[in-house]
Amino acid sequence: MSLPHASLPPLAALEPASLDWQHDENGESTPLSTCFDDVYFSRHDGRAETEHVFIQGNDLPRRLAAWQERRPFTIGETGFGTGLNMLCAWACFDAHAPAGARLHLISTERFPLRRDDLARALAAWPDLAERAERLICQWPEPVAGVHRLWLDERVTLDLHFGDASERLALLEGQVDAWFLDGFAPAKNPEMWRPELFAAMAARSRPGASFATFTCAGVVKRALAAAGFAWRKVPGYGRKREMLAGEIAAPPADERRAHTPWFSPPPARPPRHVAVIGAGIAGASTAAALARRGIEVTLIDRFDRAELGTTHLQGALYVKLAVETNLQSRTYLAGLLHSRRWLAELDPEQALWQPSGVLQLALNEKERTRQARFLANHPLPTSVVRGLDAEAASAVAGIRLDAPALDYPDAAWVRPLELCVRLAATPGVVFRRGEVTGLAGNESGWTLTLADGERIAADQVVIAAASEAVRFAQSSALPLQPVRGQVSQLALPEGAPALGRVVCAGGYVPPAADGVLNFGATFGPGETDMSEREADHAANLAELERGLPHFVAALRDAGAELSPERLTGRVGVRAASPDKSPYCGPLPDTEAWREDYATLAKDATRVPDVPGRHHSGLWISAAHGSRGMASAPLCAELLASRMCDEPLPLEWPLVDHLHPGRRIIRDLVQGK
């Protein structure tokens, strides 16, 4: 019932910026766009122009010095270019903002620079070198969508790759100050169209400011039509005048007029949050909240720190649909997000390895599916590419008989050790125990533990996997437990080594610490945690089916490939009926059924009633077997929503993850 995915741009690689480099008499170079025949900045006075037009034009030094809100100050920009404006805004924030303040930067870019070009351009400003390096090392792949970068502990940058008007129309968030930049209207008229200004107005907070270098009539007329008050102010250098102004009363957000149930609850940034469940969903959420200065109590029946070395490995991978849909978009965004997140969290790679992932096509049906997928999704080859059996064998380090999709930048992860690291984030306090009661009150929530202890919190996040539905408030969510068993084999000396995680019916990553993990079984509805020899046999059979030459080489090396000689780990995951996670505010199910009862008779009769939720109660669950690709992004989504920040996903994808989506679907279908 959310926005059809046809309204989103195709999943494809964006065209990179085409540059020429102008050289001055000193041999120094300045980038020029060959597409728009315009420079990105003047090497001699480009930074001074940025300071005058955008920093002073939005009165940022004074406003940042006076900033006392618990949410971040948010700056939006049209046209990221080389990032000079954003780096200058960051420097201004560091120079003027109070110690407890935070800054959130948003910038759109239709033609992203290549990483090497970005580094070359920013080398013009040595005093920005440290900031530039933080940007360059996280520079994302040229894929349309939202890419979140963590510039430092207080500064976040969301790069929205794609057409500026389109990206701002999809933005879920509000802006305090706009940098209206880009190539000149005469050079790039397609950007400076009325839709851009309408989207800016709709994404503005009351009183939001803007500044721009141009005084073109088309810009003044479009600003006024969108509701901005503009005025001419002195320009920089040879530009006698520029524009600055504000919007006093932004228009109402009408994007959810046909899906009012997804209207977000009012933001109330919390001071203390209790997170139930310390797996990857709960631990990543706790860390995301703590990074924002929120006190977090993380509660779980099990203390993963007591388990010691488990040798368990999980794969960071996705399986994308042939035809673009909201689920595939969400998982691709999650894959790219998790990869950057892991690199930031653990640059030493003690908890993960960027091995890449191969998805084998073992039969004609899968080969056809993969071929159609590649035809429909011309993504960068650094994200996904098709390989024949010979090329797949070369990257896997073992003979393979089937072609494959290769995700070169995917990875394997030590999931338990990762959760322990996240739980140790400053600001997170771990409490071992079982939550048996959850009650809301005027000041927040009270959690009752099995031993009788009570914990008070402003807000609560339920992230307890298959046990997430054992509370009255969440019991109506359809959630299926899925038992899975992974087998582990101690490798002898001389055993063959994989160079990639290889997936087919199961998965097998490169060995870690001399132990090979492979599996996992799939037991819908099962919750038994005991290890089964039959499951080891099934995992061995699946391993041999997908990698027969690898198994033969293991036997030749003396590996003991019999079910009774294997060890393993058993876990119970949780899955939703549509296989997408639940992430967002927890709906009041009975209220939704009452408020939207007319949908059962006529799905076109949509009541003008915003969705009612359990105030301050959130959920991140149903991550299934792809939790490494979804849970960290969902953690950022929840933390951003709770803290009144722009979200790291487009609004249709946010609605796709909403925990109330099944209630509406069941009403429409008469269930």
Report on the structure:
This protein is α/β, with parallel strands linked by helices and 671 residues long. The protein is 29% helix and 25% strand. It is built from 19 helices and 32 strands. The strands form 7 sheets. Strands 6-7-5-4-8-9-11-10 form an 8-stranded mixed beta sheet, with helices on both faces. It has a 6-stranded mixed beta sheet with strand order 20-13-12-24-32-31. Strands 17-18-16-26-27 form a 5-stranded mixed beta sheet. Helix 1 packs across helix 3, helix 4 runs antiparallel to helix 5 and helix 9 runs parallel beside helix 17. The longest helix is centred in the middle third of the chain and has 20 residues. The protein is globular, with a radius of gyration of 26 Å. The chain starts with 18 loop residues before the first strand and ends with a helix. The N terminus is likely disordered.
